[in-house]
Amino acid sequence: MLTAERHQEIMALLKMNGTVKLQELVDHLQTSESTIRRDLSQLEEMKLLKRVHGGASLLQRKGLEPTIHEKQNKFVAEKLKIGQLASSFVEVGDCIYLDAGTTIMEMIPFLKNKNVTVLTNGVMHIQLLMENKIKSLITGGEIKVSTSAVVGSTAVNFISQFRFDKCFLGINGIHPELGFTTPDPDEALLKKMAISLSNEVYILADSTKLNESTFAKVADIHEAIVITDGNDAEALEELRKNPKAKVVTA
Length: 250
Fold this sequence. Notes:
It contains 10 helices and 15 strands. By secondary structure, it is of the alpha/beta class.
């Protein structure tokens, strides 16, 4: 198979699945691992994909955000580890803000016996918070159907009435120079407000979000502690080159 044909096959698989593993490409294309690695390097140089640990993923469109259903079944094990580690930073009696998102949701069962008070904009969090008997409030505002997040000026005004020991935010892009970004300006405003109201700020994201940037800026890299998995060693190393970056891995 010619190089151009392999490249077309690789991009077709990526467009279908979003991510693809190195071994899957080796098996599918019936070629060597070294050839596939070279193909991925070439496609990354052409800015057609992003290499990640064990494979590749599509580059994220600046204004495009996956729905909560698209996110729900991706990186499940990594999200669980990140959520469990994040919950360890919560102390008994804390008042915390939990952002909408599938990674943040993984924290909730680990908060059960900590006597915390939670304010959230995550509609999908409510049932789990109730099941775990966690004292909770939800923001008012517009419900964003694609992510089940409450957003908009009403939500921003609502949370401005509160103060938090800690906030835990999901994010779409983490970049050592460009900071934390998200595709939706309305969500960016709400995240900014939560940061300003919190004593400590944590960003929860799997390693595919590293070295990415999206449309709307939320904060500079020094403004939060990043909790991620260790699957992409290169991206982690790049992030840690910025002395202001604070990162812990699950």
